[in-house]
Design brief:
By secondary structure, this protein is α+β, with helices and mostly antiparallel strands. 40% of the residues lie in helices and 31% in strands. The chain has 3 domains: 11-68; 78-213, Jelly Rolls, CATH 2.60.120.10; 222-330, Thrombin, subunit H (Beta Barrel).
């Protein structure tokens, strides 16, 4: 019996060794063909089935990383050196292989004003035109070419496009979809922050648009402290029973901003363009308390820190001026001469 058992164990060990070698060879072939998604999936299978095959597990990781490094387009690296110089080797590889390359034909609309966009574009060849429609005319806002970013503001802040974009000629771009970054925080903490920091420092069009938005505010914004209960509105205008709470930081006759805590970016992103019923409570005490309910549309969601987001609302109807003035008066700083009079 012992001889049979020993023979069986030897066969089992040999079979396992053959399986390990087979998986290892397949990983090498996939990596050489630049099929890194399948190569990494097969390596995960190797780890799961043969966790003690440390040499093959370590060697396969090094092979994949080596092939990734050799597969990066050097012209692309040179063009975006300002970004890649801030990334370590693993981050470079993750970011580069998260990009998708597209060739956009002439006269093709890339972004539409008021539409959702979750892609960050890196223009590597050609030119695009950014424009707004006023009446029956298209007004050119800017032209962007090689080495320019497109969609950086909508990508990093979760907002609707403030202008339309069309290709004026054949355009070569690489783009990063928002969904590609969902697991970055776990695998490469800090990588997304580096990309967003680069966008904020090197974006052009969005700076113009932010300035224009602030210049176009019709009504003054007031810094306040309050509470809001927000509920989703169905297409027929009925109020959904499910709700979430927020802390109000700003209000005007035509809109408001409040902060929420949300553990999933995907959930926060889903709020964009949604219509809400908003029940507000303002006041420092019961004698100075204002409560009212209005409806509005989510026009932007900004990421802050530690799962905190700012939700920006445009009201469906302009609020009464007296109501806003009374709320603002509660939180108005006491002037020095008023303090002296009280003394």
């Amino acid at each position: 019996m012992s001889a049979l058992a020993t023979s069986s164990d030897q066969c089992s060990a040999e079979d396992q060794a053959l399986e390990v070698q087979k998986l290892f060879n397949q990983i090498k072939i996939l990596a050489a063909n630049k099929d890194f998604l399948q190569a990494e999936a097969l390596r995960e299978k190797l780890i799961e089935l043969h966790p003690m095959s440390l040499r093959e597990i370590i060697d396969s990781a090094e092979i994949i990383e080596k092939e990734k490094g050799e597969g990066i387009d050097q012209d692309h690296l040179a063009l975006w050196d300002k970004l890649y110089s801030t990334l370590n080797e693993e981050e470079k590889s993750c970011f580069y292989y998260s990009l998708r390359k597209f060739i956009i034909p002439p006269k093709r609309k890339i972004l539409s004003k008021g539409a959702f966009n979750n892609r960050l574009y890196f223009i590597e060849k050609g030119e695009v035109v950014i424009y707004k429609t006023k009446g029956d005319k298209n007004v050119v806002v800017a032209k962007l070419g090689r080495g320019s970013l497109l969609g950086e503001y909508t990508f990093s802040t979760i907002t609707l496009c403030s202008a339309s974009v069309i290709s004026s000629e054949e355009v070569h771009v690489r783009c990063l979809k928002g969904s590609e970054t969902d697991d970055w925080e776990e695998k490469h903490p800090g990588l997304l922050h580096k990309i967003i920091t680069f966008c904020e420092s090197n974006g052009h069009l969005d700076d113009i648009e932010r300035a224009r938005k602030q210049a176009k505010w019709k009504y003054p914004r007031h810094s306040v402290v309050g509470r809001v209960k927000a509920s989703l509105l169905a297409k027929d205008g009925s109020v959904n029973n499910a709700h979430f709470n927020g802390s109000v930081t700003e209000i005007a006759r035509d809109g408001t901003c409040f902060e929420i805590n949300c553990s999933k970016k995907k959930t926060a992103r889903a709020l964009l363009a949604k219509n809400l019923s908003l029940s507000y409570t303002f006041g420092k005490d019961e004698q100075q308390e204002f409560m009212f309910t209005v409806t509005g549309k989510v026009v932007r969601v900004s990421f802050n820190l530690h799962n905190d987001y700012s939700v920006h609302i445009r009201f469906h109807k302009i609020l009464n001026e007296e109501l806003i003035d009374n709320i603002a008066a509660i939180f108005k700083p006491i002037e020095e001469d008023e303090i002296l009079q009280e003394l």
